[in-house]
Amino acid sequence: MENFVYSIPTKIYFGKGQIKNLGQEVRKYADKVLLVYGGGSIKRNGIYDAVIDQLQEHGIAWEELSGVEPNPRLTTVEKGAALCKEKGIQAVLPIGGGSTLDCAKVVAAAARYEGNAWDLVLDPGKIKEVLPILSVLTLAATGSEMDTFAVITNEATQDKIGTGSPLMRPAVSFMDPEYTFSVSAYQTGAGTADMMSHIFEAYFSNTEGYMQDRIAEALLKTCIEYGVRAIKEPKDYEARANLMWVSSWAINDFISLGKPVAWTVHPMEHELSAYYDITHGAGLAILTPHWMRYVLNDDTVDKFYQYGVNVWSIGEKADKYAVANEAIDKTADYFKALGMPSTLTEVGIDDSLLPTMAKKAAARLKGAYMELSEDQVLEIFRKAL
Questions:
Q1: Is the pTM of this model over 0.90?
Q2: Which contacts of 50-54 are long-range, i.e. CB under 8 A and separated by 24 or more positions?
Q3: Which GO molecular function annotation, any one, does this entry have (predicted)?
């Protein structure tokens, strides 16, 4: 286990009705905020009204940035940053899922930066100051409510790139599982696949971390227990609550402390959704089993064996490859049970752009669990067709 510094300062209000504390928390940071949200669902389900009631009750003014895309775009970030500068915004308040929160994070950073917002994506070292971020979560998936990261798409260059800074970790996040009752079955499945992939990215590391791995395995088992259950019973509070809390702990740094690794499947999927604008979790569900099969070898079989025994409760056997392959099969089958596609063809992707996407993805895989060349990434993409 390597050295690390531990600090996860986000204040969490978790559970039913916690929105009642929003106004008093916002008031600690600002008397004028930028509301950031996507479509109209938060107005239809009453979440928007609950937020506005809190702002009005505590005398907080607001401006709005609506229409944030599922894969948030640089142009939307630029629009939000300009609003902050023009209107004297003091804090940013996203209401939604990971895309909305990611957009809001870079808006908050760009509002305190004089250059182009894309500079902050390409070089997070340029993030020196960020407006306070307070979030209201409506989708369990990305963990953006408690992490330092954001992923933005530059539609002009068709680049989808992640950036991150400790300054972008939300100061306060409100997590009411009831706010996820109306999430569609497809998005619930995609969200579960996304959080499982976050855990995989930390779990499959070349640095030993016994305690971290045991926690990661428990988080994966929780996803497996409650993902399909939430799809079948959308208003099952216990299922929604467990998924929402896992989404935070999958990517708030805790399970990767002391065992860093460069992510592999996420950078590969980012190319798919940059060019084809597919749902991120669906792309991860397609690629993950193929990546697992590709990297399974004599050097990695022990880890996959451990995964099969501890997560999927496959009995210990002398043939480690048999356990590893069964675990990978169970992973693929579970993604299907979540309603996720299993091939790129199902989401409208053909071979035409795979070489371009493989080249761009491979450039971001240095230090990964198993570093992959451009040709190797392309081979995985083609196996996934």
A1: yes
A2: 50/19, 51/19, 51/22, 51/93, 51/95, 51/136, 54/19, 54/20, 54/22, 54/23, 54/26
A3: alcohol dehydrogenase (NADP+) activity
